[in-house]
Design brief:
- The complex is a heterodimer of chains A (about 550) and B (about 350).
- Chain A has about 550 residues and is mostly helical.
- Chain A folds into 2 domains: about 170 residues, no CATH class; about 325 residues, no CATH class.
- Chain A contains 24 helices and 8 strands.
- In chain A, the strands form 2 sheets. In chain A, strands 1-3-2-4-5 form a 5-stranded parallel β-sheet. Chain A has a 3-stranded parallel β-sheet with strand order 6-7-8.
- In chain A, helix 22 links the parallel strand 7 and strand 8.
- In chain A, helix 3 crosses helix 10, helix 14 crosses helix 23 and helix 17 packs across helix 19.
- Chain A is globular and about 75 Å long.
- The two termini of chain A are about 40 Å apart.
- With about 350 residues, chain B is mainly α.
- Chain B folds into 2 domains: about 300 residues, Fumarate Reductase Cytochrome B subunit; about 25 residues, no CATH class.
- Chain B contains 13 helices and 4 strands.
- A two-stranded antiparallel ribbon of chain B has the order 1-2.
- In chain B, a hairpin with a 4-residue loop joins strand 3 and strand 4.
- Classes of the chains: A mainly alpha (about 550), B mainly alpha (about 350).
Amino acid sequence: MKNLPKSVELLSGIDHKPPKQKGWMDTPVEIRKGMYCYASNPKSVEYLSLPNARPWNPLEDDWKLPENWQQILHDGFKERLERFRSFKIFMDICVRCGACADKCHFFIGTGDPKNMPVLRAELLRSVYRNDFTTAGKILGRLAGGRKMTLDVLKEWWYYLFQCSECRRCSVFCPYGIDTAEITIMGRELLNLLGLNIDWIATPVANCYRTGNHLGIQPHAFKDMLEFFVDDIEEITGIRVEPNFNKKGADILFVTPSGDVFADPGTYNCMGYLILFHFLKEKYGLDVTWSTYASEGGNFGFFTSHETMKRLNSKMYMEAKRLGVKWIIGGECGHMWRVIHQYMDTMNGPADFLEEPVSPITGTRFENAKSTKMIHLVEFTADLIKHGKLDLDPSRNDNLKVTFHDSCNPARGMGLLDEPRYIINNVCNHFYEMPPNTIREQTFCCGSGSGLNAGEDMELRMSGGLPRANAVRHVHEKYGVNMLANICAIDRAAFPDLMKYWVPEVGVTGVHEMVANALILPGEKERTTDLRGEPLPGMEDEADE
Amino acid sequence: MNVNYIFSLIAVVVLFLLSYVGVEAMGLQVIFGVIIPYAAFIVFIVGFLYRVMGWSRSAVPFRIPTTCGQQKSLPWIKQNKIDNPSSTGGVIIRMALEILAFRSLFRNTRMELNDQKLTYKWEIWLWVFALAFHYSFLVVLVRHMRFFFEPVPLVIKIIELLDGFFRIEFLSPVLKVGLPGIYISGLVLLASVTFLFLRRIVNPQVRYISLAADYFPLFLIMGIAITGIMMRYFTKLDIVAVKELTMGLATLHPTLPEGIGALFYVHLFFVSVLFAYFPFSKLMHLGGIFLSPTRNLANNNRAVRHVNPWNYPVPVHTYEEYEEEFREKMIEAGLPVEKE
């Protein structure tokens, strides 16, 4: 943080005009502090038996690569071209129209031309043309081909970890070319050489061992939730009783461990606990948490398809072991891309589970009849629609809320109106950000896809600029003071981003607001919200 | 000076000289009028199929549509059936809009940073000119089919008629324009291809990303349009002789009638080069867009299981292994365990 430029300086330093004289192929990468994450810890790489575990440092000339690293990359590239039509098509058909160029939050926030999605992809395409196309083999540089050298490799590494796989460029591409897909393949190739970042590698190893990214062991996981139970009792007078690893429960609930660990995610976690308690008291719904499948997020997705599958397998295995009917997933971004677009294919079919039907409303979630996992936001929206929750939205009257669509639920799923429906029912002041910055055109928080480390703060603050700018707009126009979202990385990243760009705005999950509004049977008169701050009109009582 | 476009320009000029001199000075009509067109056509067909088959040989392991609207979920939430289709019908409409109307490009915006504020404006010109370019090219292509049919099919005649709808008559002793009528398509093609070229050199971001392979087809198409317009409106040529030649090609009985100027052979050579170049270049986006997995798949992932043909078992960390490591701590914390 200490070397981070002031927000005004950072903003005035952005120049979107690429250099005139020198072409990008002649501009070698400069790995700059604040813009990259530390190299993976070899112990974490080893724990998953991933190749080429070793200590290395991106700033040093020698990356201690295996002797035949070029061959490994070439073979890996070839294999992926055969396995993924997406990759092959996206290597072949880009016309470089440039429509994607200014759609990337990292380009907008840094002005670095290699952050234009087209150029990020060209980093790989240039090598592809050289190695795999007739024109490239014959004409070389003239056909846009270039050999894989150490400089090129470093450039790959630097820029593939400056992409948050948010898919915004893919919305605007006339051929649907998805830079996320290219980054995913590129990172997979880098992982063949052991070139991961530690902010991904260590959570992945943790998750494999303890069931969650943070490495929280089972007893500690229970402790942490029980700490929230105490807090909830203090605020509401009700002692909620979450189930852990309970066999025969109706529903398994899985959420990102970030919600258990750090504010303001913790308040959202309290929100889940309160909601499930309400549903148990009123309707007898039996939900269990699992310490083994205690992670919704999946940093394996940022490592390789195989690693993603290895981590994701726990959800179905645990659902089967516990004998639940179906699964609900909490508020998380990339978690939902994995569950929605990959899980059933990778680890299904989940024929041991039932087609999800809400026992409270009778709603059949036909959109999840194969995967058997629904989003908590879908579940809650359905409850509200059927009038099953007792809500007092005025308890959120101190909030002027705007909603950030998280990239993956927006562009890898289409979960857009469900969270808005909930927000409009649990609070009275909701304002949308400008249309080019929400829904399918939403901007990333700047820290997605495993980039939310501490050492790359300048990158994160730059990448988050477009989002922060839109928040500042509604803050100035409507007095918005709360940025709601449905993603654990958002909840971890936005507090820093807001502090940097729009310090007057706080960050919340949607279910924190639900729980603030939700009236529990037999609760005492609440004077504070879940954060211990006075409710509107309760300023005096709360002080006592 | 930009090396990439200078090189491409030189390449097209060389192609021009090659064919012009070849025909005019060396009398190589057979090569430029028969052999090369046939070869180019074969390369195009074989190359195109080869590329498309190459793509279809690659697997589609996951269903990864980019969703650009509300998903299908609860019955009372209105789904965006086109931008986030959940059925084959929806996908067909989405693809049709993408291919026929460049739906995604239509969304294009331009970002500006002024007074510390970012704004995004609707940027329609790329869409307008891209659409104009592709459709005028299509009309030109269809119109030229008259050279390969006898009698000329009605469809082609109608298209010709519509294309020449705005009949501009400009008759003076020096210049006679209007006889024959002006085809809009040719002019729009030249104008739009010129726009696409200028955009590449004027917009600093697009200039930075442009390769020689981006300029070459633009210059080549410019060459085709210019030579075509020259022949039609200015230098004139013996259209009956040309039709004899093209019909000869179409019926596999090639003949080389007298009285066809070198400019025609240049035109034909440019077209041949474009055809032969097509399968090896980015122009293959014509075929690729049909296969783009972010657009041509329905977003019904959780309702209908997608099968990955190469899905293989992976090492996992089982619950048993987990409990084995943490059993004592779990028991102490009051968590249920499988083995006491």
